[in-house]
Write a structure and sequence with these properties.
It holds the Pfam family Metallophos. It comes from Chryseobacterium elymi. The chain is an alpha/beta fold and 264 residues long. The chain contains 8 helices and 12 strands. The chain has one domain: Metallo-dependent phosphatases (Purple Acid Phosphatase, chain A, domain 2, 4-Layer Sandwich), CATH 3.60.21. A hairpin with a 3-residue loop joins strand 11 and strand 12. Helix 1 runs parallel beside helix 2.
Amino acid sequence: MLKTIINLEPGKKVYFASDQHFGAPTPKESKVREEKFIRWMDEIKEDAQVLFLMGDLFDFWHEWKHVIPKGYVRVLGKIAELKDRGIHIYFFVGNHDLWMKDYLEEEIGCTVFYKKQYFEMGGKQFLLAHGDGLGPGDKGYKRMKKLFTNPVAQWFFKWLHPDIAMKVALYLSQKNKMISGEEDKAFLGEDKEFLVIYSKEKLKTEKIDYFIYGHRHLPMVLDLEPKAKYVNLGDWISYFTYGVFEKEFELKTFADGTKKLPLR
């Protein structure tokens, strides 16, 4: 099992955020949320050593050879500013930005991951992933992901004019409930939450202190045995939640958020 070891400097913290879905439901409405996220990044930049962006930063993202989606200039600029300050930026590709290639790596210097990763921080063991496709169930989405990641399908898609491709992709992203997550907002119970089931299975063979995921949108922290915690980071659509780790992990709501965290 390969893992990355991060030695935290005194007074420094690790931050986590997921599922911003910038661009949805419209560019105008998205900008309000983008501004909040930028203010949050301004707030954390003084004590952040590492920032994990855990997937679906964009509601849809596709990179052609010489073209990327329009917009997000201030968000990307702020991420670049944090990187230039020496903050390590790790980006996990989600199901909405799974066609990410090398733009963030080459232009900003982020490290981009396409699969789950293991980290050791502050003596604690972490398993990090966006979360899509892990565990049992979710079969409809898994079939859809196979189609989206199929090299032939990707080859055909890249030859669409970007204006047409973006229009089709954004429509599907918002209207298809399997993709948007609209069908998956309520807590289903530990015996039905596929990421909880996946985490418990992992604990049978691996020592993990924190399982941290995006994808699910509903913010929650659950105690697992033995002394492990399952974390879903929530989103920046309804909850404006984020994680922070120094010696222990905390799930917090940004002050500009519009909803309180549900109790779990």
